[in-house]
Amino acid sequence: MAKTSFAEIATGAIVIALAGGFLAYAVAHTGVAAGGYDLTARFNDITGLGLGADVRIGGVKVGTVTQEMLDPNTYQAIVKFTVANDVKVPKDTSAVVATEGLLGGNYIALQPGGDTVMLSSGGQITATQSAINLQSLLGKFIFNGASQSSGGQKPGAAAAKPGDGLTP
User: Fold this and answer.
1) What count of other Cβ atoms lies within 10 Å of the Cβ of residue 84?
2) Among 125, 133, 152, 166, which is least packed by CB within 10 angstroms?
3) Quick check: helix, strand or coil at residue 150?
């Protein structure tokens, strides 16, 4: 049996301590351990929205998506998320599944209303807008442009009129 030296044990202990420090830093700075109160919203389409996605107000992260499920009766997506305790959300707030950009991920953008009554834990946001499928929109744009230009004339070219000097 090989004899373990004090240097090997000390090195192992240092490596484990450093790994624990990195883990604690990661949890503290990613919002994973952040608390808050729970809210719910129903959407027709949440394509691209995943667990852990941001919940933002005015571009500032105020919460996290914690659960996604399907309502078997209405076939709507039910999204549960947390909002930081220090952020009060009015009852008439709307929720939109927004995109960070062409290649970015989706998040929930909350747009607070003017109601003086605030949602409490377990509350539901009723005014929602589903995710916009950018691939579908791009496909419609391309095919719409192709069908308009297939009339035998280049897009943007003006048709010749009698007397304008362009016809023989």
Assistant:
1) 17
2) 152
3) coil
Secondary structure element (H or E) that encloses residue 20, with its range: helix 6-30
Q: What is d(CA 75, CA 138) in angstroms, rounded to the nearest whole number?
A: 26
Say how far apart CA 36 and CA 148 lie, in whole Å: 52
Q: What is the Cα–Cα distance from 158 to 164, expressed in whole angstroms?
A: 12
End-to-end Cα distance, the chain: 103
Closest CA to 118 of 91, 157, 79, 80: 91
- Residue 45, classed as helix, strand or coil, is coil
| Backbone conformation region of residue 127, classed left if phi is above 0, alpha if psi is from -120 to 50, else beta | beta
* Phi, psi dihedral angles at 31 (to 5 degrees): 80, 10
Average pLDDT, the chain: 82
- Asked if residue 42 lies in contact with residue 78, where contact means CB atoms within 8 angstroms, the answer is yes
pLDDT value for 80: 96
pTM for the model stands at 0.63
